[in-house]
Amino acid sequence: MDTATAPSSARPDSATQKSTPTSTQQSLHNSVPDYAPTTVAPLIHLVHRPATRDGLLLGAPAATEHTFVLSVELPQPPRTGAGLYELQPAIDAVRRACAFAARQYFGVPEGRVVLPTATEAVVTDLRPWRRGGRPAHATIDLRLRGADLVDGVPGTLRCESTVSIGGRPCGRGRSRLLLGPPAPHPTAARGYRGDRGERHRQPGSAVGGKGFRAAAPAAVGCGEPGEVVVSEPLSVSAGTVLVAVRPTAEQVAPGVGPSSLDAALRQTALLSVGLLRGFHPAGCAITRWSAAVTRFAEPDRPLVCAAAPGAVGRDAEGRPVAPVGLRVLQDGRTVATADVTVLLDC
Questions:
Q1: DSSP codes joined into one string, 292-314
Q2: Residue 80 clears pLDDT 70, i.e. is over it
Q3: Which residues contact 142 (CB under 8 A, 6 or more apart)?
Q4: Which domains, and CATH codes, for the chain?
Q5: pLDDT tens-digit map of 96-144
Q6: CA 7/CA 9 separation, integer angstroms
């Protein structure tokens, strides 16, 4: 079995593969950015499980399907937050592993865009996600399949995953990644439709960097002001909350992953259920995540995020849950959409 370890951004870049150490001196950390702009990406450890003996001996990136075991540390949530580990670090760890595997095992050249065009994740058992006073270690079984091959190199990658904490299966996910050319602004992946031209008015000066006023950390489920990537509400009307996204270099652009975009979606969802459904955002957690990127965002243009929470229901244990539909827009055009479920852990 091949192994690779991804360091945090505070450590020197290194990745090793025991069977062929000279061919894999790469960093998984650099495959895509951190999941939040101001946090250090958790250390992850990736183990390749070759399907054949030849694959083990040769390490050749010829197969169109590979399986891995991924280990990642889930950071301790803020003390003021819900008593659950966040789902998002696990999602990000899978993306980092997929970006590394695309180049190392599927032969995708350096410089190609690796863009998650669709991501789904759901908590299937809440008990292992309960925090225990220290970071938790999650084990994620990955199955990656390449498709749309050109000269043996896939144009898309599909991933299926199962998450276990403490040896107990507690989540599952699937995703689709576009392995596109290094074009300035390539179109979104084939089969994922854009916004078909619908437009929404976008606030002016309040969206820009100088007019940005960050939301209170507790209102968006954050422990520190530096973690906040969305503004105070620009408007609250017709059951929808609209916020500006903090200007950052980590927008969805060629060669740059959707880390800040995910954080904006999460924070806007928590803000909306706090304002419109009476939830306490600091005590909430997202237990279902389904997001799609419909187009690339211009790195120098402002983004806004709109959230519309649905009716409040109850989970099997009687805790309040609410679905939230979200859209990220730039210049009135949809960049990404998401449907999530927010649980009030009470």
A1: EE-SPPPTTS--EEEEEE---EE
A2: no
A3: 67, 68, 69, 70, 94, 97, 98, 101, 159, 160, 161
A4: 1-182 (3.10.129.10), 193-346 (3.10.129.10)
A5: 999 999 999 998 888 888 888 999 999 999 999 998 777 789 999 999 9
A6: 6
What is the C-alpha to C-alpha distance for residues 42 and 61, in angstroms, rounded to an integer?
Answer: 27
Q: What is the pLDDT of residues 169-223, one digit of tens each?
A: 999 999 999 987 765 543 443 333 333 334 444 443 345 455 789 999 999 998 8
> Amino acid identity, residue 113?
V
8 A C-beta contact, residue 345 and residue 279: no
Instruction: Give the pTM.
Output: 0.79
Quote the tokens at residue 165.
């904490």
User: Is residue 130 helix, strand or coil?
Assistant: strand
Burial 210-246 (b: 16+ CB within 10 A, else e): eebebbebbbbbbeeeebbbbbbbbeeeeebbbbbbb
CB 263 within 8 A of CB 327: no
Distance separating alpha carbons of residues 24 and 19, to the nearest angstrom: 10
| DSSP codes, 184-217 | SSPPPPTT----TT------SGGGSSTT--BPPG
